[in-house]
Amino acid sequence: MKKIRFGILGTAVIARKNWKAIHNSGNAIITAVASRDIARSRKFIAEFQREARFPATPRAFGSYEELIASPDVDAVYMPLPTGLRKEWVIRAAKAGKHVVCEKPCAADLPELQEMISACQRNKVQFMDGVMFMHSKRLMLLRKTLDDTKSIGKIKRIATQLSFNAPDDFLRGNIRMQSPLEPHGCLGDLGWYCIRFTLCALNWQMPRRVRAHILSQAGTKKSRGTVPTEFSAELFFDKDTSASFYCSFITENQAWANVSGTKGYLRVDDFVLPFLGDKLSFEVFNSKFAVRGCDFEMTRNARQLSVKEHANSARDAQETNLFRNFAAQVQSGKLNKDWPMWSLKTQQVMEACFTSARQGREVKLSDSK
Hints:
The chain has two domains: 4-131 and 317-333, NAD(P)-binding Rossmann-like Domain (Rossmann fold, 3-Layer(aba) Sandwich); 133-313 and 344-367, 2-Layer Sandwich (Dihydrodipicolinate Reductase, domain 2). Helices cover 35% and strands 29% of the residues. It contains ten helices and 17 strands. It has helices at residues 14-25, 38-51, 64-69, 82-94, 109-121, 136-146, 167-172, 185-200, 317-331, 337-358; strands spanning 4-9, 28-34, 59-61, 75-78, 98-101, 126-128, 154-164, 208-217, 226-235, 241-247, 249-260, 264-267, 278-284, 287-291, 294-298, 301-307, 362-363. It has a nine-stranded mixed beta sheet with strand order 16-13-12-11-7-10-9-8-17. A six-stranded parallel beta sheet has the order 3-2-1-4-5-6, with helices on both faces. Strands 14-15 form a two-stranded antiparallel ribbon. 45% of the residues are buried.
């Protein structure tokens, strides 16, 4: 079957990882890279062709318009800043190009709704770039949550995603510029926490949220500040709740904890897996007993694993993402779940952002 031909719109750092993911997919290739500076496109292509070579060298473009108009591109991978995505997703859709969009997908919910509507009208596939959604570990985690014995009824989910950014990041990175990345660490990191929570709860939406910006900053190019530390509480039906914390100023952590009536599970690397060829999580069914004067707690832990490389391999989650996307495009049918995942994640993120900015609890109906 013909391989899906990707064009990369922009040369952001994450595009390096996804160059190799597309190369490893087996059913997709890169045929073009665009930047607003053609020299940058050429440099990007030359560097990564040396590391993961495509049979035909991808073409360099000096404008996004040229790539979108190219007849040699079937799908566009879009790592452009959030504030720029709406225009180019819609242009790509109108040109009949399928879209893999980095996250957070849009500056606000109406923008994302417009972007997805454009894809639907033009019968092209839309998907965001959350890699862990395409890991075999997530399938095993889903099976564990659904077995009714390991965890029982989910009562509480807690997640944290953080990294301690260097000073040059805080002074100049685009993620610190409010016009380009208005949600700061909430968009860059909190998106993953929200996505994991919604996925674990089978896409049930919270009824209300309460969130806080714990610290904020901006660069000289910002009109205002963006969150650098953010926390939120999400309240669902049936007395289920969730919390998350994300930060640009706290050291590397990416854990998720799901607690239920019969046990709990913990994933220590739910976003970017630790190096190795095995992805794992632990399930705990601790037991407590009183024996005379002794209060005894037994751990009762078991580790569940899948064979899957952490990154840069044919079975890694980022490769699975592009392989799954290309296979969907080849099928000639549109996957309706993928845009739904993005819309729900965006809606919850927006509700959290509104709550934090306005200092009040927000009902999800208020954020639409």
